[in-house]
Amino acid sequence: MENNINHVGVIGLGVMGASLAQNFASKNHNVAVYNRSWDKTQSLIDKGVSGISGYQDLVDFVGSLESPRKIILLVKSGDPVDKTIETLLPMLSEKDIVVDMGNSNWKDTERRYNEYAGKIRFVGCGVSGGEEGALHGPSIMPGGEKDAVDELLPLLQKISAKDFNGNPCVTNVGIGSAGHFVKMVHNGIEYAIMQGIVEVYDILRSFDLGTGQIAEIFRKVDYGNIQSYLLDITINILETQDKVDGGYLLEKVVEEAKAKGTGGWTAQSAIEFGVATPSISAAVIARIMSARNQSYVTDKLIDDLKEMRTTKLTEPEIEAMITPIFRTLEMVYLSSYLQGLDLIKQVGDEKNYQIDMSEVTRIWQGGCIIRSQMLTMLDLFWEEDKIKSHKVLYEIKKDIAYIRMLHGKSHTPKPVLNATYDYFQSIFAGRLPSNLIQAQRDYFGAHTYRKVGEKGDHTGGWNQ
User: CA–CA distance from 335 to each of 98, 111, 338, 395, 407 (Å)?
Assistant: First the structure.
């Protein structure tokens, strides 16, 4: 059956798929929807959204789409993506576009991009913003064959969020697997900023401050460069009361942070390509640690140590902490962005993704989880090819003392704050002590070394 009435098709009607379908429909697009189990399709149809048509059969679903067909997949990453595409292939032509909008590993996307070349036009597309973003306007990061992505842009521009100047938060990110790579790194940055915020929260509660007091402190620092979505929701979380039996809901949440893998993939990719992302890597380890923490020590030991490190603050002391907290979080945000963007830039150059870095920071200004005012500064930073980095780092250098101050005042674990401190200290150090490491490597393994001011490699010469 072919009636070609629908502009776009969505396969996979979980939270994100159903929300995106409704977003498309709200922008006057006719949307075909399909889910492996009919109940989710029926549930969406029952909402009565104009412009959405549900299909029980994939043949009818494909036949309802105008040519060239544009099909968006929001199925579980891994094998389900491959199986869905393999099922679709006999029904599609080489001009049809299949867009994987799930959180796929960029290496899978790269494989699919090459494997399906000449059969369909495959696009790997990152989407950030969660359920609300998908419904009302996400940040969208498509990558693949240039012509295919450019053809999708008018469709995606209508459903995306807007940047600070009112432009759509979507761009042609680059060739091949660029879209999913950029989205992966976005999530790695998200890990680091979130962990930095919670480490400050932990410092404050170690001073015996109440949840409401901590919310007020975060409200006072949510401005300027670090005014952001993540701080906004942190304040809302801290202020939320349990509607069932009262008290702060956060205090009843088990202290275990789960993950879906993208942060770990970012850390792995950074190691693979030789890019330093210490804040991001520390945040990944912190989540792993949160699941294992209680297995190491007894509750009694934890309580004893907690008593030893609790220090109450006076009101003037609390007020005096506002600036150190703001400057510390500013460094966390900056280090997280710089590390992630450095990874995108280096891998993009190596793989010839042809990424416009200023466009990446621009489309993160709206809809996505890591949006903040600091992105406007980073937009200029990349436009001027790192010229501004010296000015940025000069300003941040004097703020290093604030992290030291918070570190000295409490004994809570601070993996991201420490990694951020070390990241900037390494940048400011000039010469690092790595000359001794290379000397050790040459001593026991003849791995060679270079001499300052000389060309070529040397080996040996050490006292035996």
Answer: 36, 31, 5, 13, 18
Closest Cα partner for 405 from 425, 423, 421, 426?
Answer: 421
Tokens of 409: 């005042």
Tokens of residue 320, six digits: 């005096």
pLDDT in tens, 280-338: 999 999 999 887 765 555 666 666 666 555 567 888 888 989 999 999 999 999 999 99
Which entry of 40, 70, 183, 414 is annotated as an active-site residue? 183
Mean pLDDT over 375-394 rounds to: 67
On the question of pLDDT at 1 being above 50, the answer is no
Report angle CA 297, 303, 308 to the nearest 5 degrees. Answer: 110
Q: Which of 110, 190, 199, 330 is catalytic?
A: 190
Percent of the chain past pLDDT 90, that is, above it, reads 77
CA R_g for the chain: 25
Annotation says 190 is catalytic: yes
Whole-angstrom distance, CA of residue 321 vs CA of residue 311: 14
Helix (H) or strand (E) holding 220: helix 211-221
For residue 161, what is the DSSP state?
A: -
The pLDDT mean for the chain works out to 91
Quick check: 435 pLDDT over 80?
A: yes
Q: Which two tokens stand for residue 109?
A: 């996307």
Q: What residue ranges do the domains of the chain occupy?
A: 8-176, 183-429, 438-464
Place domain 183-429 in its CATH homologous superfamily. Answer: N-(1-d-carboxylethyl)-l-norvaline Dehydrogenase; domain 2 (1.10.1040.10)
Residue with tokens 């903040």: 372
Within 10 Å of residue 353's Cβ, how many Cβ atoms?
Answer: 21
* Topology (CATH) of 438-464: 1.20.5
Residue 100 sits at φ, ψ, to 5 deg, of -90, 105
User: Tell me: domain 8-176, CATH 3.40.1080.10, correct?
Assistant: no
Among 435, 459, 436, 456, which Cα is nearest to 447's?
Answer: 459
The pTM of the full predicted model, rounded to 2 decimals, is: 0.93
252 is an active site residue:
no
Task: Tell me how far apart the alpha carbons of residues 269 and 276 are, in angstroms, rounded to a whole number.
Answer: 10
